[in-house]
Automatic annotation (TrEMBL):
Residues 125-134 have a biased composition (Basic residues). The gene is arfB. This is Alternative ribosome rescue aminoacyl-tRNA hydrolase ArfB. It comes from Rhodanobacter humi. GO terms for molecular function: peptidyl-tRNA hydrolase activity. InterPro entries: Pep_chain_release_fac_I. It is an enzyme of class 3 (hydrolase).
Length: 140
């Protein structure tokens, strides 16, 4: 059972783990052990996720999310398989925790009069600088 928050937990049956050989440090032993972990979690068809959370997760522009709605996370940060497993599960929990809280609505505001004036003054100054660059000398 992967505990995401006090109200949300994901059963082990929904998590698919695959172990593969990792690149990086480890000497000759790295060629024989499968210490990297690939965790797959089907967001689109998960019964343990509330509909609101599922919609927010699927709406994210995340390259780890496939077209079928499966979240694929790879862990090869550590040399041993157990630490990589824990790391991948914690990263999945962090991703889900990030969408549990609904995003704040943006309140539309207008720029103040002073900020408009500052912007116009800045534009005039930049224009003058560019104008001095393009002038031809008078002595020709």
């Amino acid at each position: 059972m992967l505990t995401v928050s006090r109200t949300l937990s994901i059963p082990e049956t929904e998590l698919v783990e695959r172990f593969l050989r990792a690149d990086g440090p480890g000497g000759q032993h790295v060629n024989r052990t499968e210490s990297a972990v690939e965790l797959r979690f089907d967001v689109a068809h998960s019964p343990s996720l509330p509909d609101v959370v599922r919609a927010r997760l699927l709406a994210r522009r995340d390259r780890r999310l496939t077209a079928d709605g499966v979240l694929v996370i790879q862990g090869r940060r550590f040399r041993d398989q157990a630490r990589n497993r824990d790391d991948v599960r914690e990263r999945l929990a962090e991703i889900i925790r990030g969408v549990l809280v609904p995003p704040k609505k943006r309140v539309a505001t207008k720029p103040t009069r002073a900020s408009k004036e500052r912007r116009l003054v800045g534009k005039q100054q930049r224009g003058k600088i560019k104008q001095t660059r393009s002038r031809k000398p008078d002595f020709e």
